[in-house]
Design goal:
The complex is a heterodimer of chains A (234) and B (237). With 234 residues, chain A is an alpha+beta fold. Chain A has one domain: Immunoglobulin-like (Sandwich). Chain A has helices at 5-10, 14-19, 62-70, 74-81; strands at residues 25-32, 38-39, 43-47, 86-89, 101-108, 114-122, 127-135, 141-147, 149-151, 197-198, 227-233. In chain A, strands 2, 3, 4, 6, 7, 9 and 10 form a 7-stranded antiparallel beta sheet that branches. A 4-stranded antiparallel beta sheet of chain A has the order 5-1-11-8, with no helix packed on it. With 237 residues, chain B is α+β, with helices and mostly antiparallel strands. In chain B, 14% of the residues lie in helices and 26% in strands. Chain B is built from 4 helices and 10 strands, in the order ααββααββββββββ. Chain B has helices spanning 4-14, 28-31, 76-84, 88-96; strands at residues 37-46, 57-61, 101-104, 114-122, 128-134, 141-149, 158-163, 165-167, 201-202, 229-235. The radius of gyration of chain B is 20 Å and the shape is globular. In chain B, 44% of the residues are buried. Classes of the chains: A alpha+beta (234), B alpha+beta (237). Chains A and B meet through loops of A and strand 9 of B.
């Protein structure tokens, strides 16, 4: 890089410069750090700088909404691959349980220089764990990242478990741990920040037969970070 | 102390030594009967509002010992530390796994305060540090760092690490009267029964009676967020 500075500036068109990222091969290990929250099927995506799976402070796309409200990554897969992304879909073959890990092996990034990750958090209304466009280092090595929990801003966090996973249907699709309640009246009916933002956490309660929330405040809260990602650049 | 000067030029040679005489003939005269050690100073600051830390449990060991791991069942010694602040069982496991040295802090570290201890270990080619302490106004929360690689630290080097908060997963976070050993409750510490997820995870925080959980013995002062502690680690020798 040092010796090529003159070339890069004076003779290589910028477009070419941005497209010559050499292909890299990655292992990506994702660990769910929480004690009580599940991750829906993960999307691990290598893409270029024309794409974001999500962006803090911006409105969620319809594809992100489907992932964050119902765990459906198909829209994000289609949209990202249309822009040349290389994806690993659902490496855990289903839910990634609390405190467990999954590894994507030998992801060949092609010409893509950025890595993003998403998965919905259950039980939440539209919470998700995310990594937005981490620049993949050119130097081989092992890199550790910690990911926060986001709120898509597209659904009120009423914390009622009612199977409502479809876009626009209010409610939490499921509590996979079956360790919460039913019959909640709902925590809230409004969402102040309707852009993607850091999730404020579940409220929950300790009343499994009513109360305001169907999630348990002793089990279904979390502190950031909620995931650890170890990327091995080979 | 005359060996100090050799660290800079001969570190790789010394790192192959244990405590016996050197087999390298070039250094025979210097090394016979010399025990090569390294010393470290640790200062832990309690960053919580009202979660005293139990006396620190610190060990230096090889790479084969992992005190805990996300998603893995707590050892009995870790359960004893995380539920009751006891260090003996935790240290026994470290020693059984070949730890070179274990040192316990001499007192709790209260919120807003710091505790310092020094630890000296024989030199080895694998040098990892593990530190753990309980947040004593909880059921089974602890903080610490496991397997910190010491080999890259030169004399005088200092690193600062902010520490996360873990849940041992061995006792349900029910926050009930009689279950929390710290001054919030003066209740029970270690109990061999395991009534939680039985794997280590990051802690989700305490609910407290200020947040809709009337039965909780904890109040708003006991809430915390991560990180809960600052560790300053300095190699002194």
């Amino acid at each position: 890089m040092k010796t090529n500075s003159i070339l890069a500036i004076s003779t290589l068109p910028l477009l070419l410069a941005s497209s010559i990222a050499s292909a890299q091969v990655l292992d990506v290990k994702v660990t769910n750090l929480t004690q009580g929250m599940f991750f829906t099927p993960l999307l691990v995506s290598a893409h270029d700088n024309s794409l974001h799976l999500f962006e803090s402070g911006e409105s969620a796309t319809s594809e992100l909404t489907a992932m964050a409200e119902g765990g459906d990554i198909s829209g994000l897969v289609t949209a990202s691959e249309a822009l040349g992304a290389v994806n690993s879909e659902n490496p855990a073959a289903g839910l990634l349980s609390p405190s467990s890990s999954t590894t994507v092996s030998d992801l060949n990034t092609g010409s893509n220089g950025y890595l993003s990750i998403t998965a919905m958090l259950l039980p939440t209304n539209d919470g998700f764990v995310g990594l937005d466009s981490w620049a993949i280092p050119e130097e081989a090595g092992t890199y550790t990242l910690f990911l926060n929990a986001y709120d898509a801003g597209t659904e009120v966090n009423d914390e009622i478990v009612n199977g409502g996973g479809a876009v626009g249907v209010v409610g939490i699709p499921a509590n996979p741990g079956a360790n919460g309640g039913t019959g909640a009246s709902g925590v809230t009916t409004s969402e102040s920040n309707q852009t993607v933002h850091i999730h404020r956490g579940n409220v929950g309660d300790t009343d499994n037969a009513g109360g305001v929330s169907d999630v348990d405040s002793r089990i279904h809260r979390w502190l950031n970070p909620v995931a650890k990602v170890v990327v091995t650049v080979k | 102390m005359s060996i100090k000067k050799y660290f800079g030029i001969g570190f790789s040679v010394f790192s192959l030594l244990t405590i016996s005489a050197c087999s390298d003939s070039d250094n025979d005269d210097v090394m016979k009967d010399v025990v090569v050690t390294q010393s470290y100073e640790l200062t832990v600051s309690n960053l919580t509002n009202n979660q005293p830390f139990s006396p620190l449990a610190v060990s230096i060991h090889g790479a084969n010992y992992t005190a805990w791991s996300i998603g893995t069942e707590s050892s009995l010694g870790l359960e004893m530390l995380a539920e009751g602040g006891a260090t003996a069982g935790f240290f026994s496991e470290a020693t059984a796994a070949g730890a070179y040295v274990t040192v316990s802090g001499d007192a709790p570290i209260f919120s807003g305060e710091s505790g310092t201890l020094e630890i000296e270990s024989i030199l080895n080619d694998e040098m990892e540090l593990t530190i753990a302490t309980m947040l004593i106004n909880t059921n089974d929360a602890f903080t610490g760092f496991h397997g910190f690689d010491l080999t890259s630290l030169e004399i005088g080097d200092e690193v600062t690490v902010l520490l996360p908060v873990y849940d041992a997963g061995t006792e349900a976070n029910n926050e009930l009267v009689g279950t929390i050993p710290g001054p919030a409750d003066n209740g029970e510490g270690f109990n061999v029964a395991r009534d939680d997820v039985d794997v280590v995870a990051r802690h989700s925080g305490v609910v407290t009676n200020a947040d809709g959980y009337a039965e909780s013995v904890l109040d708003s002062s006991h809430s915390f967020d991560a990180p809960v502690a600052k560790l300053v680690l300095k190699r002194t020798e």
